[in-house]
Structure formats: structure tokens, C-alpha cells
Amino acid sequence: MDSYDHRVLGPRLDLFHQQEEAPGAAFWHPRGATLYRLIESYLFSEMRRANFREVRTPQLLSRSLWERSGHWDKFGANIFVFNDEDRSYALKPMSCPGHVQLFRQQIRSYRDLPLRYCEFGACHRYEPSGALHGLMRGRAFTQDDAHVFCLPVHVEGEVSRFCALLRRVYARFGFQDFVVGFSTRPSVRAGSDAAWDRAEGMLAAAALSAALEFRHQPGEGAFYGPKLEFILGDRDDREWQCGTIQLDLVLPERLDAEVIDASGAPVRPIMLHQAVLGSIERFMAILLEHHRGQLPFWLAPDQIAVAPVSAGQFDFARTVAETFAAAGLRCQIYDADETLARRVLAAHDCGIPMFVTVGAKEASAGTVSIREPNGRRCVRTLSEATEWFKAETLAAPPMRALGSIPGLGDDVPRSGTQFGADADGT
Ligand SMILES: [Zn+2]
Question: What is the distance in A from the centroid of ligand 1 to the CA of 25?
Fold first, then answer.
């Protein structure tokens, strides 16, 4: 397997592992859980900025709801089912029908629209064992599922705003370009041809109004409506379909969602389904492979390695690490009985972008010596370095997971035991 395959990088960077007892699912190690939370927190902050409200809907929903929505006919073979004494339930493969239930909880006026919900929904889909591929294709994943309930007049604005959101988020993760596919009616579908004409016309007009250039993908739409699909290009020129926005006239009808229009009559809202990343797990795999495991500073689970040159500087190294952690930075002390060069290499192999050295001169002057990912070196005072690292991190939106210094208790782990396995690597 390629050494930059995420299935190799995950265990090597101590992010996650998979094992036979949980096919298609991952066990997240502390560093991987940190990365997962950073991605989720960042995306959630962007969704909040775009006026989405976070919701949560049940994992298990009666099979009858999936039959009414049409998902059972289309995806029944991929849905995990559980039975109690008298009913059958499905483990949700997506969050759409759940969000319609939220919409239906009140009488909605046209003045309430657009109504925007988002959920980082834990979803499960049965995939044959031969189709499983690390985090790229699993049975358990988290979908950044969002739905906008709106009227025809809102569609263009929603699509434009969604495109701006995608551009911002993808650029933040280091992807500058994407191509767009416009997927139209599949052969097996719900809804009349007239409804499809209308849905495709509205979505195409919105895409043009957002100045999107797109390629046609006939027959690739969802069973309930046409889709715009956003396909990222990575550094190996591979294409990954991640984002999507889909225009749906079918589910509001099937699940009986209504809104009172300006004349006082009930009408069906339009439902826009959207996802920026698709599956967080799959996106993480794409991200790791794209960056060869060397994630940008704001996203690195451990951002800074702090290394005392010799035992005499350990106290100052601890002060440095505590100062960084208090500023919300994530760091590790690299205090192995190894040469500094070996420790730099070990930190690099673990994907830690910044390497901070403290020797006798630095300890007496209250400075730190910084080695940046590009190899450039500089010396700064501790407070200058802290402000600089903070500014680098805060260039990204606020995060939920703040820094910690694992191992700063009495029993300080050595990098040799925690990270040393790859110290002799590339
Ligand atoms: Zn949906």
C-alpha cells in the first residue's frame, strides 16, 4: 500500500485504527478525535455564520417513515433494521426525513422561510465487505447534513450562498479548485415529469446565477431531485465528490410538509439538501492523503513539539509548553534521550508542524528557537512566539477543542515510547 494512503497514515500518525470486529468503522485515538473535533467545530462555526441552526434527530426511526419517504424502495438493501416486539426500525442512513419531522412540528408561515437546519448526523449504511475501503467507504460515518426549507423565490440566493460557503471552507482546508456536475433525473425516480422539469429548471437557473460552470451528468440525480455536485481535485489530480446541493419537491409532498403562503393557503415548501464535506470520515481521508499527513498548522492535532536540548532545560521547556497550552495551542514535550536531529525527524513523522527548541541560552534569555515546517528558523521571546502561534491558529475560526499537554504530570512520557516507532523512518 502507498505510504500516503490514509489507511497507512491513520495508524502511523496515531489517529485511528480499524479492526475486524467493527467492519467499516474506525476507532479514534486521542489525536484522531482531536482532528475530528477540529473539523467538525470549524464547519459548525461556518454553518452558524450562514444562519443554520444545529439540530439532532434519532438514530432509530420506524421503518414506516422510510417507506413513506421512498428511501426504503431505493436504499432498503443498505439499511440496517432492528425489530422490537411489534415494530421494525431502521438505523438512519441519512437525516432528511428526521428534519422534515422538525419542520412539521409547527404551523409554518412563508415569513418563517428560509428555515435552515444542520446536523452532524451519525449515519450507518450496509456496504458489502468487499466494497469497504478504510474511511473512504465505510458502514458508519458522520454526514454534515443540512436542509433548507424555502420557496422558489429563495432558491437562487441559497445556492449562491452555499457556493460561497464551499469556496471558503475548501480553501481553508487547502483545496483551491473544484469542478461542478449538474446531475439530472435518474431512470428510477419519484415525482412527475412536470415536477422534474420545474426542479431541474430552478436548479440550473440558480447555478447560472451563481456563475457556476458545470458539466452535465444525465441520469445521476437523486431519486427525489436534481443535484449540483462539487468535486475537489487533490494534489494527485484525483477527483473527489464532496459537496452537494439538491433541490427536492418530492419529500415535502410525501412527508406532508406545509407552509402557509401570503394568501393564507397551504403550499409545499421546497427542500434543499446540502452537504459541504459529505462524510467527515471520508473527507478526513482525502485531507490526509492530499497533505501527505502534514496537516496545516491550525488543523494539526499536535501543533508544536517543545524540545529541551538537555535535561538542564526541562523546567523551562515545561514553562514554555504550559504557556502555549494556556493560549489554547496544542503541544507535546519531546524529551527523549535522542539527538535533537532525531527528535526533529520524529516530530515531523508525527505531522507536528512546529519544532521549538530550548537550550541553555534560550532558557537564560527567556526565548525559544523555532523551526518552521519549511525549515526556516528564528528566535523569539516566549511571549512573541505565543502571540505568533495564536495568530496563525486564530486565522482559522474558533475551535471547541483547546490545547492540552498530555504527559505533563509527574510521569512524563518520552517521545521514544509515544512517537518513537517511526523515528528511524523516512
Ligand atoms: Zn437530505
Answer: 22
